Amino acid sequence: MARKKNSSAEVTGPRIRAAAQRLFARHGYAAVSMRQIAAEVGVQAGALYMYTPDKQSLLYDMMHDHMADLLQSHAALPDCPDPLAALEQFTRFHIRFHSARSDAVFIAYMELRNLEGENFTRIEAMRRNYEARLQDVLQRGHGAGVFRLPDIKLATYAVIAMLTGVNTWYREGGRLSLSRVEDIYWDMVRKSVGA
Amino acid sequence: MARKKNSSAEVTGPRIRAAAQRLFARHGYAAVSMRQIAAEVGVQAGALYMYTPDKQSLLYDMMHDHMADLLQSHAALPDCPDPLAALEQFTRFHIRFHSARSDAVFIAYMELRNLEGENFTRIEAMRRNYEARLQDVLQRGHGAGVFRLPDIKLATYAVIAMLTGVNTWYREGGRLSLSRVEDIYWDMVRKSVGA
DNA sequence: GTCTATACCGCGATAGAC
DNA sequence: GTCTATCGCGGTATAGAC
Predict the structure, then answer these.
(1) CATH code of the domain made up of B1-52
(2) Which residues of the protein have their beta carbon within 7 Å of strand C?
(3) Tens digit of pLDDT for each residue in A17-42?
C-alpha cells in the first residue's frame, strides 16, 4: 500500500493504549482520568477520542487482547498426554506468561468489576475457559491415579491462586531467576496435588 | 451513664462505616462517592463529615480496624509448639477468619494503593507482620525437618495466596461447608510443604 | 489528526440555617 | 445532628477551527 509509514496516526493509537495500561495498573481504572492519559502521550484529551469511543472501551479492549493472547499462547503449547507433564507445562507456562505482562495481568484481575454489562460477561467467560484447561489436566491426572486430590474444583482454584500470586512479589533482577522460581513453584504444585 | 440510648448519633457512625465498606468492596474506593454513601445511610452528604474528617480516613480506618482485628485474633490462638499443628492452626484460622469478613478482606487487598503516604506504610507493616507469623511456622518446621521446603519465603507467599484465594469463590450455603473447605485446603497445604 | 474551547455534570468539602 | 446551598475543581465527551 502507498500508505505513509510513521504517520503519527499509526503510532499514537498504540501509545495511548500503552499509557492507559500503565496508568490503570498503577492507579486503578476509576482513579485515572482521560486527561492524565492524554498528558502521558503528549496530546490533548479531546484527541483520544479519535482512537477510542470512550474510556470503557480502552479498558475492555486491553483486557480482551490480554485474555485472547493468553488463550492463544496456551493453545499453541505442544500436546502433553501425560498428566504430570501437562501440569508441569501449565505451571511453567502460567508463571512465564504472566510475569512478562504484569500490568495486563494486574488489570485483568483487579478491574473486572469496572467492566459494564456484556463486557464483563465476555471477559469472565475467557477466564473460565483458561481455568477449565487446568481443571482438565487435574481431572485427567486424578482419573489416571497419578494425582491424589480431595476435590478437583478446589484444587484448580488453589493452584491458580498460588501461581498467580507470583506476580505480587516477583521482580526481574531479584534474588531468584525466573526459571528458579518456576522450579520452586513446580515442586510445591506437584506435591500439593499428591504426585 | 445517663446518656440517651438509641440517639441517632450513636447509630449513624457505624451505619456510615458499614455502608462505606459495602460500597468500597463492591465498586472500589475511587468509584464510590460520598453522596452514594450518604444515600445508602439515608442522610445528606454534608452530614458524613460529622463522623469522618474525609473520605480517605473512612478507608484507612476500616483497613486499620480489620488488620488490627486479624492480628489480635491470631495472637489469641493457643500456642502450638509442634510446627505441623501450628500450620494446620494457621490454615484453618486464616480460612475461617477471612471467609467471615469478605468485604473487609477484599478492600484490604485491593485498595492498598489508594492509601496516601503514612496510611499505606502503616497498613503494609501490619500485613507483613501477619505474613511473618506464617513464615515463622514454616521456618520452625523446616528447621525441625518436618517440612521439606525449597524456599521458605516463596512457600510463605504460595500458602498465603492459596488460602486467600478461597475468598474469591467461597459463598455460604454453597456445595461445601466451611469446615469441609478447611479440611481440603489443609490437605493441599500439608502436602505442598512436604509434610 | 490534533488543537482549543466548552458543555454539562458530579466530585469532595464547607458554611450557616434550623 | 442534619439540612440546604454552594464553592471550586476536575471529570467525560463533543464541536468546530486549523
Answers:
(1) 1.10.10
(2) A 7-9, 12, 42-47, 50; B 32-36, 45-46, 49, 53-56
(3) 999 999 999 999 999 999 999 999 99
